[in-house]
Design brief:
Elements: E1 2-3, H1 11-20, H2 24-31, H3 39-58, H4 71-77, H5 86-108, H6 126-133, H7 146-166, E2 176-180, E3 183-188, E4 198-203, E5 210-214, H8 218-248, H9 250-276, E6 282-283, E7 289-294, H10 297-304, E8 314-318, E9 324-328, H11 335-351, E10 361-363, E11 368-372, H12 385-399, E12 404-408, H13 417-433, E13 437-441, H14 446-453, E14 457-465, E15 470-477, H15 485-491, H16 496-512
Parallel strand pairs: 1-11, 6-10, 9-13, 9-14, 11-12, 12-13
Antiparallel strand pairs: 2-3, 3-5, 4-5, 7-8, 7-10, 14-15
Length: 513
């Protein structure tokens, strides 16, 4: 599906999911989430979210811990001759261990991972190999192999001999033993008499005093450095060999990260589903849309956080009998919010996310959701509001078909009302002939009677409480709305004599129309 995500504010859903993810790869997937390539893929994520939610609500899990990003390490392992750092292997080990621990959860709830639980531990036999040669901090173990054991034994013996030989030089006031790399030196304080025959190795720690390497220990220090160098070469050989082991399991490591990404996204989607009291929509092939008692996700969250009023449910039915709704009513009635709610929930369903709907939720296989909301004028390209809307309509008319869902706000505005209404009628007639589905909002009175007489259009309105002069935000299908501009103007405090004069002019206009 292609969709105009920006005007639907889908980025807000992505941010919510990203915050709920535990891994960097899951967070990346949330940031880049979009409609699935097919309805089948959307259903797979729906099923995974449903399984994850069932596990979370039952207390069985799974719950992903925070994990390091190992994708760069896996890319490095793929290069022949690479020697991955020990810390990177330790991060890999952590991810491998989590994958192994998650397999029983997925085996119990197969819907969690459509590619199968086996992918979670396909490379798990790398774990004992890592543990055999690396310390928990990523350093190569001294007993990583026989050669290393021998070298470390030699290194310790040489250091002990050097330390014993150093004792005779540490009797001077303030003299201390200091290791500069693998070279033993005497640290003498500033102003100390240089009574040690040897090589100056610079200043001491923090720039205080100076370092002297006694002449008789130069050869011993050379041997010590050589042994340390041999150890480092052997460490690198071990890391290269371990990297070779990782390369042999490259596909398994890639599958593990892909599986964890999917699970992280599914678990985050399950948490969002719980927060929104949402559920999976029924995905069907026909271009239909049924949303009963639907809510805009952001309004639900704002109410839960006491940042907004309790949202009102919206019910919409779009099908072969009611292909295009023409929604009219006052500015404060919630027409734009209803469009955004329908569009956002449709896109969420095609992404595989659960949607906040109290009743039935059925979403058709729309290949395109086309949205025109807000003011499309552009200073840079010298487009007026009307010209901007015309450009949008050109794109729509070029691509729309029976699997297109349109959401057009204030169709026909920005020019003379009569010309705008005439253009809107022609556009709606053309779209109806193509079998397009959707919702259109307008203030243009002629469109109400046009929709009432058109076989593919249905009037709808946002219900308004005429006694309290307040919107109810409920959609009524089959009933055109009243603009109530003068009623609302009077309520908002415009002078009564001015409003009465406006009513007189309105009657005059109706008589001449």
């Amino acid at each position: 599906m292609e969709a105009d995500l920006k005007p639907l504010e889908f980025e807000g859903i992505r941010r919510l999911l990203e915050k709920l993810c535990a891994t960097p790869f899951g967070a990346d997937a949330a940031r880049n989430l979009g409609p699935a390539p097919t309805v089948g893929v959307a259903r797979q994520l729906q099923d995974a979210i449903s399984a994850a939610r069932l596990g979370l609500e039952s207390g069985e899990g799974p719950v992903l811990p925070e994990l390091p990003d190992v994708r760069a390490a896996i890319r490095q392992v793929a290069s022949p001759g690479a020697a991955l750092a020990g810390t990177a292997f330790r991060n890999l080990a952590l991810v491998l261990r989590v994958g192994k621990e998650l397999r029983p959860f997925v085996e119990k709830r197969p819907g969690l991972l459509p590619t199968g639980a086996a992918r979670l531990d396909a490379a798990a036999d790398l774990l004992p190999k890592i543990d055999a040669v690396l310390m928990p901090n990523g350093a190569v173990r001294e007993d990583g192999n026989a050669q290393l054991r021998q070298l470390h034994t030699e290194l310790k013996g040489e250091r002990e001999q050097i330390q014993k030989a150093m004792q005779s030089h540490l009797s001077a006031p303030g003299a201390k033993l200091h290791w500069s790399g693998q070279r033993a030196c005497v640290h003498l304080p500033d102003g100390a008499t240089d009574q040690i025959r040897g090589v100056r190795r610079g200043t001491g720690p923090g720039g205080h005093g100076y370092l002297i390497e006694p002449m008789e220990l130069v050869a011993s220090n050379n041997r010590l450095e050589k042994t340390a160098g041999s150890i480092e070469q052997e460490n690198q050989a071990i890391l290269r060999a371990l990297s070779d082991e990782g390369r042999e399991r490259l596909v398994g490591l890639q599958h593990l990260v892909e599986s964890l990404t999917w699970l992280d996204l599914a678990i985050a989607g399950a948490q969002l589903s719980i927060h929104l009291n949402a559920k999976a929509a029924e995905m069907v092939d026909a271009p239909v849309l049924t949303l009963e008692e639907a809510y805009h996700p952001q309004l639900i969250l704002a109410y839960a956080e006491k940042r907004g009023p309790q949202p009102k449910p919206l019910s919409v039915h779009i099908n072969a009998d009611c292909p295009i709704l023409v929604v009219t009513g006052p500015n404060t009635g919630g027409k734009s919010v209803s469009l955004k709610t329908v569009g956002l929930l449709t896109v969420m369903a095609h992404c595989g996310l659960h949607i906040p709907v109290g009743g039935r939720a059925q979403v058709g296989n729309f290949t395109r959701v086309f949205v025109d909301m807000g003011d499309p004028q552009s200073v840079a390209f010298e487009l007026s509001t009307y010209s901007g809307h015309v450009e949008v309509l050109k794109r729509l008319l070029a691509d729309a078909d029976e699997h297109t869902l349109i959401l057009l706000d204030e169709l026909g505005t920005g020019t003379d009302p009569e010309e705008g209404a005439a253009l809107a009628m022609a556009v709606l007639d053309h779209l109806a002939e193509r079998g397009v589905r959707g919702m259109v909002t307008t203030h243009l009175t002629p469109l109400k009677s046009f929709a009432d007489q058109h076989g593919s259009l249905r009037n709808a309105s946002m219900r308004f409480d005429h006694e309290r002069l307040e919107p109810t935000y409920e959609l009524e299908i089959g009933i055109p709305g009243r603009s109530l501009g003068l009623v609302i103007a009077a309520k908002r405090g415009l002078p009564e004599n001015l409003v009465n004069k406006a009513r007189h002019y309105l009657e005059t206009l109706h008589q001449h129309s």
